[in-house]
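Form 7-S
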Amino acid sequence: MEGLSLDAFAGPDGLVLLLSMIARQEYPTDQLIELAKRLHLPGYEESLMIFQQAVGEGVVAPAIAPGYHLQCEIQEVLTWAARKLEDPLGQ
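Output:
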């Protein structure tokens, strides 16, 4: 990955590049998968730090493996977080 800008991994061609690197086991798979999620899943990066809190508060119940969030779950977490910012005391 050295010498490649972050832009090289964006868009459809960037996703294919990441997938090829995973297939060839060029770098640790978990790191490449996390990079792919952060770049290619809308809202993933923004929801990352609050996702577990949202699960704990019953906002979402993840449908698949830990660390793999469906788009509807990500959007629900972001909506919940926005509401909490508007009304931090829950009134």
